[in-house]
Amino acid sequence: xxxxxLTILLFIGLAINLKPIxxxxxxxxxxxxxxxxxxxxxxxxxxxxxxTIKITDIEIRGTERKEEIRLAMSIKIGDTVTExxxxxxxxxxxxxxxxxENIDYAQEAYKDGYKLIFNVIDNPKLNSVIISxxxxxxxxEIKHIFDSEIGKVINYNDLKExxxxxxxxxxxxxxxxxxxxxxIGIDGNMTIIITEGMIExxxxxxxxxxxxxxxxxxxxxxxxxxxxxxxxxxxxRRLMNTNYFEKVDVKVEQGKTDPTKIVIIFIIKEQLTxxxxxxxxxxxxxxxxxxxxxxxNNLFGNGQNLGLNLxxxxxxxxxxxxxxxxxxxxxxxxxFLPEILSARTGFGVSLYRQRESNLFQTINxxxxxxxxxxxxxxxxxxxxxxGLGISFSRAIFGDPLTSPLRAxxxxxxxxxxxxxxxxxxxxxxxxxDIKSYNDLNKSTDPKVKSNLASxxxxxxxxxxxxxxxxxxxxxxxxxxxxxxxxxxxxD
Length: 491
What we know:
With 491 residues, the protein is an alpha+beta fold. The chain contains 9 helices and 23 strands. It has helices spanning 23-29, 66-72, 83-95, 139-143, 156-171, 212-216, 229-241, 437-442, 446-471, and strands at residues 6-7, 53-61, 80-81, 104-110, 113-119, 128-132, 179-184, 189-195, 199-205, 245-254, 262-270, 274-283, 287-299, 304-314, 323-333, 346-357, 367-370, 373-376, 382-395, 405-418, 427-430, 433-435, 479-490.
């Protein structure tokens, strides 16, 4: 029996779970199995006692640790024991950790009872330790754990603690799916074979609208990499942060082709990603305003975002008259041209047209009289804005996918112009009668036509001086503005 190679398997590895669970729960289940908690091989085959017997002597053979064995045993000379009691004591001997599981038992008549004879085999002394299969940590980082054991008889309990230290070294860094196999030769040379839990496959289940590549691009863990529970949890959280999904669960299973490998399953539950928001608001400046907002995230399952905003208001409900409106279209892509640019490079574009009343801006009033024709400008001055904005964002340090530091740059070109009124917008009077511009313009009376032409010239001069030149820097009736914005965000 001494010419056998001793092999102890410590599977710090895989427990199949058939229900979706959190990553932390899955990782906890990966470390439940303890192969050291077993019975000696001969505990059920060498005992032939059918009834109780009286123990008149106990003999220990094959080791110098007789006193340790006697202290571990509950059976004492003079006791009357059963078969189950002897089983318990053989297990207690093995649990000391110093002996091979081949513990032989014999019984022989002695005096007025029986002598119990236990044959045990000492484990060899630990001569050397070789670490194999490690890629995440250097050999010396693991090997030094056994320094205090070199030259001593191998104790399974101490070895279990040392293996636990190796496991803790991995698990404290998130690596939960490792297998550790100690192979002990009869010469005391021990090889620690570490299988670090490579990911065999990552499955995506439950996505109906979202394209699979939109989900996979958010995952830092890939097939062929070593499974890391922390990274998987970050991946799960990153998927939730897209706001495309109501729930994301993770299930961990054994590999199909290799039980030392791992299959990770992301179970997705999508949520509604579109909103339609109609509304009515009132303000002194803009009066009664109707508004419609339409937003769609994850457009066509591609992860892009589209927004539309329309509003109209004004009229006699407002302190100022005239129609106010807003039309705005926004589109963005958080993964713009990833094949050319880096991962998670965001790009967005906005296009808008807006007219709003100027409640606090005033201009010199226009009042003019040409013979019996007069005009009075009573309409408000509105601002027109037409603009285009674009923005870029990307990580500035570290992995573009996971870096918490991102820089953004936004560029906006905008044209601002006060509305330029025409004579048709004024109140026209002929004598005491209010007249429309079209009626006066259709008149065949040369005097009326001449008065209207003269009044029109005065009004054009008024708008040129008071509005075009008075309210714009360019003095052309509009100004162009360019904005550049820079920001750094830490999330």
